[in-house]
Write a structure and sequence with these properties.
Layout: H1 2-9, E1 28-29, H2 38-59, H3 68-94, E2 96-97, E3 103-105, E4 116-117, E5 123-124, H4 129-156, H5 160-181, H6 186-197, E6 206-211, E7 217-221
Antiparallel strand pairs: 1-3, 2-5, 3-4, 6-7
Length: 250
């Protein structure tokens, strides 16, 4: 059953894909990105440097020309999207708990981040948005991502508020993608965002401010991911620098 769940949610887009193929040598748990250990901080630093090199190549500059905190922020936001998306979709669409702490990655990869899982059973859960939100908070926001944030803040003094803002934006992006691909889940996915941005873990990171022409909720974050500091970079659609403070919409 777990294979069918992963196959289904992986069809939403790349960020929702988690593999279950047999693992070869060189795969590590994402929990190794742990700011509480020196080895964990070193692993996170390697990932940030990888992102800086990728961003530099896209921007036509060297990795050294990409600020460390910019690379840190964009690594964190990308990772948050990859962790949150499948966990959110598995919970809402199938009533299954995906454990983020059982996800693995390949440190020696040459391409983009690919996640697989060592989870073998589809553990059932309620599909109610409040219950899914609680699981997302436990296994992702307060679990894997919290330890990555600790590493990033310790290595490069990146603001925890900025990193949590990245997480809030990634969650809203995952909800939007899921709602766009699976219309029957739109309201529930957006409710998960509302629940978590009302909780201490993501409170103050952003809020919905209305809907667009497609009927999807529009999220505005209260921080900036720093993408604009890249050569040729700009402001994201949900950026606090693009939009003035506004009254929260529920």
């Amino acid at each position: 059953m777990l294979e069918r769940v992963l196959e289904d949610v992986g069809g939403v887009n790349t960020f929702f894909r988690v593999g279950r193929a047999p693992l070869g040598e060189g795969w590590e748990p994402v929990t190794a990105w742990d700011g509480r250990t020196e080895a964990g901080r070193e692993r996170v630093a390697v990932e940030v440097d990888r992102v800086r090199a990728q961003l530099g190549a896209v921007s036509g500059v060297g990795a050294q020309d990409v600020e460390w905190r910019v690379g840190a922020s964009l690594f964190h936001q990308g990772l948050a999207s990859r962790l949150l998306s499948p966990v959110l979709a598995a919970g809402l669409c199938h009533g299954v708990r995906l454990r983020a702490d059982l996800f693995v990655h390949e440190p020696g990869r040459s391409g983009s981040l690919e996640l697989r899982t060592r989870q073998t059973r589809a553990t059932p859960m309620s599909r109610e948005p409040v219950e899914v939100a609680a699981w997302v908070e436990e296994t992702v926001v307060g679990g894997v991502l919290a330890h990555v944030e600790e590493a990033l803040s310790g290595i490069g003094r990146v603001s925890t508020g900025l990193l949590r803002g990245d997480t809030g934006a990634a969650l809203a992006g995952a909800a939007r993608a899921l709602g766009g691909a699976r219309g029957e889940q739109r309201a529930h996915a957006e409710e998960v965002v509302r629940v978590l941005t009302d909780r201490p873990c993501l409170r103050g990171t952003g809020a919905y401010v209305g809907v667009d022409r497609a009927g999807l909720a529009v999220f505005r974050r209260t921080t900036c991911c720093l993408y604009y500091r890249l050569p040729g970079g700009g402001l994201c659609g949900d950026c606090a620098l693009r939009h003035p403070p506004t009254t929260r919409s529920r």
